[in-house]
């Protein structure tokens, strides 16, 4: 009789949706962000711009079937785009921003709100992305960096501890000085402990880098984050806890009701 054939083990094949690349090689894509007054569009294509990889809008992330131009909806859309890019093996993005508006003020405001919010959402998503911002605000960023460096230098100078200088006394005043020291109350002079700046105070003084330009957090009397934080450049306000974490669904136009 012929010997029985053993069961052949089937090897499971790992299906990869992205291109075949070498280790350490980046796969580039182009992220087109269009911020209008009604909605925010996050559209990722290949380098040629002809093939669509992923497209999510802010209106797709709200419960009602409508357009949505809020920064919170843009963050949710950016998280979906980042997750989809990770599944397809895209490791680097060129980010291009475009906004509508009849004048430069409204155009610039929509561009910053949408672009910076989406960039922050890509970083929060935890993906290994190399984001390349392509816009014409280099002069403003350079001035912000120089201003932050100046504030940091002033902060270092203020914290330098200088040793007190000894005062020269004539010899005939030394006995009187000794008599007063023996009759008076002796109090141990203990130096006041140096109070370290909290995270909120460091960000407010410009000692710590912040992702949002022209934003300085508000701190209470204890150095903690105030319940309401506002970004005057975007005219947005939101609520935070003592550690500065943003409370969900609290970002609104104008003052926020933080209780």
Automatic annotation (TrEMBL):
Taxonomic superkingdom: Eukaryota
What's a single GO CC term here?
membrane
Q: Which CDD domains match?
A: TY (cd00191)
Q: Which residues cross the membrane?
A: 113-135
Could you tell me which SUPFAM superfamilies the record lists for this protein?
Thyroglobulin type-1 domain, Translational machinery components
GO molecular-function term, one example from the UniProt record: MHC class II protein binding
An example GO BP is: immune response
Under InterPro entries, the record lists: Ribosomal_uS11, Ribosomal_uS11_sf, Thyroglobulin_1, Thyroglobulin_1_sf
Q: Which Gene3D superfamilies match?
A: Ribosomal protein S11, Thyroglobulin type-1
Ranges of residues in domain Thyroglobulin type-1: 197-258
Entry keywords, A to Z: Disulfide bond, Membrane, Ribonucleoprotein, Ribosomal protein, Transmembrane, Transmembrane helix
* Record's subunit section: Component of the small ribosomal subunit. Part of the small subunit (SSU) processome, composed of more than 70 proteins and the RNA chaperone small nucleolar RNA (snoRNA) U3.
Instruction: State the family it belongs to.
Output: Belongs to the universal ribosomal protein uS11 family.
Record-given protein name: Small ribosomal subunit protein uS11
Task: Please report the organism this UniProt entry assigns to the protein.
Answer: Astyanax mexicanus
């Amino acid at each position: 009789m012929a010997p029985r054939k053993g069961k052949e083990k089937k090897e499971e094949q790992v299906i990869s949706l992205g291109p075949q690349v070498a280790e350490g090689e980046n796969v580039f894509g182009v992220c087109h962000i269009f911020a209008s007054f009604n909605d925010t569009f996050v559209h990722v294509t290949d380098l040629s711009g002809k093939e669509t990889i992923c497209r999510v809008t802010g209106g797709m992330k709200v419960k009602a079937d409508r357009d949505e131009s809020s920064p919170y909806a843009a963050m949710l859309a950016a998280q979906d785009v980042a997750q989809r890019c990770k599944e397809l093996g895209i490791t680097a993005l060129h980010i291009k921003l475009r906004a509508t508006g009849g004048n430069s003020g409204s155009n610039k405001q929509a561009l910053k709100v949408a672009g910076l919010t989406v960039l922050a959402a890509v970083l929060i998503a935890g993906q290994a992305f190399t984001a390349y911002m392509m816009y014409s605000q280099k002069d403003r960023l350079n001035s912000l960096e120089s201003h932050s460096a100046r504030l940091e230098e002033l902060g270092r100078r203020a914290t330098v501890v200088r040793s007190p200088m000894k005062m020269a006394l004539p010899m005939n005043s030394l006995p009187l000085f000794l008599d007063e020291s023996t009759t008076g109350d002796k109090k141990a002079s203990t130096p006041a402990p140096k109070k370290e700046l909290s995270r909120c105070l460091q960000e407010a003084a410009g000692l710590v880098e912040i992702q949002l330009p022209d934003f300085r957090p508000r701190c209470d009397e204890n150095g903690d984050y105030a319940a309401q934080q506002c970004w005057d450049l975007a005219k947005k306000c939101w609520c935070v806890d003592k550690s500065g974490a943003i409370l969900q669904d609290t970002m609104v136009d104008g003052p926020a009701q933080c209780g």
